[in-house]
Amino acid sequence: MTSMTEPKPRTAGHNQPPALDVDRIRKDFPILERQVYGRPLVYLDNAASAQKPRQVIQAMTDVMEGCYSNVHRGVHKLSQESTDLYEGARGRIAQYINAASSDEIVFTRGATEAINLVASGLGQGMLQPGDEVVISWLEHHSNIVPWQLLRDRLGIELKVVPIDEQGNFLYEDFLALLGPKTKLVAVTHISNALGTITPIADIIAAAHEKDIPVLVDGCQAVPHMKVDVQALGADFYTFSGHKLYGPTGIGVLYGRKDLLNRLPPYQGGGEMISSVTFERSTFKSAPHRFEAGTPAIVEAIGLGAAVDYMNALDFQAITAHEQDLLSYAETRLSEIEGLTILGQAEHKAAIVSFTMDGAHPHDIGTIVDRAGVAIRAGHHCAQPIMDRYGVAATVRASFGLYNTRAEVDKLTDALHQVKELFG
Question: pTM for the complete prediction?
């Protein structure tokens, strides 16, 4: 199988730190200067939401202070300026993932809405009872629940690709699930709970051999690797702004233009129409047919600034740095007796989920928080994965481009305190 957009597997050695100027990058993130309980903040909850650089904050402030107005319909100067910034962000985001056109970029509230948009469109006459949608055990709830709702409403069937004990996506089992009734494959690029990187290029290629379109949840991929939707051949690709060092309330649905224009509107209202009478309405082409009402103008511009920020960095250096952190963290955490890391896939992003004997994940999270270390404890909106491993919850440390080995050490020290408290 190919691995064209996947980071190399983590290595065992820790002697050569990656060539990323993390000290300079950290200065761009104001929140990293604060203290929590009298200790410097260590933020290791990036898979839930990443922090924002000054460049993003400033871009959003500049709009609100200097040229804010509603977009597209105004003839006055402020509206024209806001429209140029808003559509300029769309164009740069298209370039960021190498979409063929900015018309293939639909702004949504996040990846959750993007997936629901596709599910809603397919559910309006494009899927029939008995049709199958293939998902996997690695999915976030956002890529499970919309298809369940469609199943309950239309009578489609869900087929689920299993994972092995290490959290690897079982590709041969996936191939066996593709059949004449399969109408869509909807899978994650990177698991938010385990960090597993799926063989997404191979998944798409295999589905396309049977003329099956593929939707990819790319929330955990776009901040950590260079994604090229044309090279992948993705039919739909979704991601959220807030995990890409941008604001909340904004996300992206990439879709091939021909497919987007086959989908019916997701919501009705202003902006998405060509004409309205009391008898009927006609609708614009994509992307505007899916952007009813006043959009998240400032947030879209902020996401454009986040993309600019990422483009100014070396993605190979980011990947190497985060893989180094993953390897170092797995080594340090493995030193703690009674700590079990869940998910040791061959290809894995910088996410570590674990449990500790005798300690509930929420208790672990609370104690670690008092040491100034922010981690996540819970089911991570991935309860099927928890069921797969027979646990109700895990602790998750997830790394970003501004994290350091020293912060891994602080996490490890805090977990030793947990060990002492719970024996």
Answer: 0.94
CA dihedral 216, 188, 245, 415 (to 10 degrees): 180
Could you read off the pLDDT of 54-83 as tens digits, one per residue? Answer: 999 999 999 999 999 999 988 999 999 999
Selecting among 41, 170, 381, 391, the annotated active-site residue is: 381
Residues 395 and 306 reside in one and the same domain: no
Catalytic residue check, 219: no
Shared-domain flag, residues 332 and 245: no
Q: How does DSSP assign 64-131, residue by residue? A: HHHT----SS--SHHHHHHHHHHHHHHHHHHHHTT-S-GGGEEEESSHHHHHHHHHHHHTTTTS-TT-
Domain range for residue 396? 22-46+314-422
Among 282, 311, 340, the domain-final residue is 311
Residues 106 and 231 in one domain: yes
63 exposed, middle or buried (CB, 10 Å; 0-12, 13-18, 19+)? buried
221 Cβ neighbours under 8 A, 6+ residues apart: 5, 189, 190, 197, 227, 239, 349
pLDDT of residue 16 exceeding 70: no
Which of 254, 276, 311 is the endpoint of a domain?
Answer: 311
